Amino acid sequence: MKQHHIFLSFFIFTCTALCSQTQKIQPAHLAGSWYPKNKTELNKNLDYYFSLAEKHFPISNKNEVSALIVPHASYHFSGLCAASAYQAIQEEKFDRVIILGPSHKKKFSGIALPDYKAYKTPLGTIAVDTNAVNLLAKKNRLFKTAIPDIWQTEHSVEIQLPFLQFCLTNFEIIPLIIGNLTEKEFTTAAQQLGALLTESKKTLIIVSSDFIHYGKLFKYTPGIKKAEQFNTQAIKAILNKSYKEFNQIIIQTGATICGQSAIKILLRLIEQNALGHVECTLSSLYNSAQIKNSYKNKKIDVANLKKPVDAKSFVSYAGIVCTTKLTRKEKDSLLLLARYAITKKLFPKKILPIDKFKQTNNLEKPLGAFVTLKTKSGKLRGCIGTITTNEPLYKTIIRMAQAAAFNDSRFLPLKKNELDDIKLSITILTTPHSVKNHKDIVLGKHGIILEKTIDGIKKSAVYLPQVAPEQGWNLTQTLESLSKKAGLDKNGWKQSKFKVFEGFEFGE
Q1: CB neighbours of 490 closer than 8 A, spacing ≥ 6?
Q2: Under 8 Å CB-to-CB from 273, ≥6 apart: which residues?
């Protein structure tokens, strides 16, 4: 009998272990409280928020959305704000969605990975991209699965799922709950997630965050006007895509933004150019007191959202839409055009198919650009560009591609037998602007123009944003090298003037 009990205990333990290892389906725990449990009612609820958003918070640019920042309160409070941002993806197709949400009830270090294979809501079941999750777990100890019960108690990820199901079809998710991270770990997390974005799957990033929580209930009472001012400053830093600016505001004001860590990962991703050149737009902004005051007969009077409310406490909600400047098709068209321009120069009589090149409004814009040629082994073979121009982008690409191939003074002109060994990349630039001093330069984000006049002779040099990270230079090393490039000694950057610009690179 004793042996039977031992065997039974072992059998139960083995089954438990196997069940924990077998990835399960995570059930929704907010349905019926934070949002409707009934599928028909939930769809009707979401449809109402989207119809209001489309009418009162229209979005003009819905091309190539790369990330959204959306609130995570119950739909009664933040549903309209969330819909104002989510409407931007209703006409898009995504293969998967990375969801970054903060931990409200569990304190831990690192990032929690899902221990399940799918998440089930009233609108159906969403599969987890388990291959990507396993890859993250293997690559860095920062990503962890063994955090007990965190998915049964956290709301920041689940609250986003019905919105995604309402907007998208046939997608997987990579749900992540962000714990305590060091400054270095924010960079590491962004690098690991950025590596996933290089895959063929089209990926959307969702950052789940409410903004400032004000009042004694939240132990944050700088005064309503100051709280609103700090909220505006934090949002402005995000729209400026500045990790440094956002981080300083958090430190200086103690702003109670619950998803600040998730926001910081997104800002690091943007600074690392993992999303390309991103533009961020505010879709809506209001607080819990304003939305509460706006309900009349269970309907929202949107006009009241703009009216100030004198409340003892409130939570702010903001929707932010991040879009990439060029679509994938436009990038492919420019690369095709660059190769066509070089090939036509080498083989004038050759008939080349150019029917895949599609002209768009974006390709007509006067943007600076560089074209870079490298061998398949990674050696530079030519790089020429222009920072400012009045001609359309597609014409700039043709001209710079041929110049990089045949007129870069550092190399002999490209030969016919080299063409198949060449890989092309293009860097699109924003308009340069002056900075007060070198301390305002952000490596990896900013391209740098150094200018200095000596005895009436103007000296200048430029580096693209990717140069310093590729070389592993710090700011001083970058400026010393830039000084030498301009024909100055290594300390020539001191007392020089600087302009910066942003750029994003894409290639074959």
Answers
A1: 480, 481, 483, 484
A2: 444, 445, 465, 466, 503, 504, 505
Distance (Å, rounded) from C-alpha 160 to C-alpha 99? 8
Give the predicted TM-score (pTM) of the model: 0.73
What DSSP element (H or E) covers 462? strand 457-463
For residue 478, is pLDDT > 70? yes
- Name 180's Cβ contacts closer than 8 Å, sequence gap at least 6: 107, 108, 109, 110, 261
Q: How far is the C-alpha of 10 from the C-alpha of 6, rounded, in Å?
A: 6
Say how many C-beta atoms besides its own lie within 10 A of residue 94's C-beta: 18
Phi-psi region of 229 (alpha: psi -120 to 50; beta: other; left: phi over 0): alpha
**CATH code at 433-507:** 3.30.1490.150
User: Distance of alpha carbon 124 from its chain centroid, rounded?
Assistant: 27
The residue ranges of every structural domain in the chain are 2-213+235-247+257-324, 328-428, 433-507
Nearest to 131 by CA among 121, 139, 141: 139
The CATH T-level fold of domain 328-428 is Glycoprotein, Type 4 Pilin (3.30.700)
Four-way CATH pick for 2-213+235-247+257-324: 3.40.50.450, 3.40.830.10, 2.30.30.110, 3.20.20.80 = 3.40.830.10
Q: How many residues does the chain have?
A: 508
Residue 355: C-alpha distances to residues 160, 332, 337, 340, 352 (Å): 41, 12, 10, 11, 9
Within 59-129, where are the H helices? 75-86
308-337 tens-digit pLDDT: 888 899 999 999 999 887 777 788 889 999
